[in-house]
Amino acid sequence: MGGINYQIEHHLFPSMSHMLYAEIAPIVKDACEEFNIPYNAHPTLWSAYASYLKHLVVCSEMS
Where does the Fatty acid desaturase domain lie (predicted)? Predict the structure, then answer.
């Protein structure tokens, strides 16, 4: 998904190589759970696309 699935890791560690994001993702996820912070991730391109479409519907209903 072009690295977009590691957006949280990128913003936490912008100077870190993108090659390490998958390795640190479980650590970031655990920290989010510990501090009750939502960690949103999509395991497949299709689930990410479905989430995007759902977001579009919700936004269109709000306007």
Answer: 1-41
Sign of the alpha-carbon dihedral angle for 59, 60, 61, 63: positive
Contacts of 46 by beta carbon, 8 Å cutoff, 6+ apart: none
Token code pair at residue 17: 């190589």
The residue type at 56: L
Tokens 């391109």: give the residue.
Answer: 45
Q: Which of 8, 2, 62 is nearest to 40 (CA)?
A: 8
Q: pLDDT tens digits, residue range 8-58?
A: 999 999 999 989 998 999 999 999 999 999 998 888 888 888 988 998 998
Record the tokens describing residue 44, joined without a space.
């497949």
The identity of residue 57, as a single letter, is: V
The first and second tokens of residue 38, run together, are 């939502």
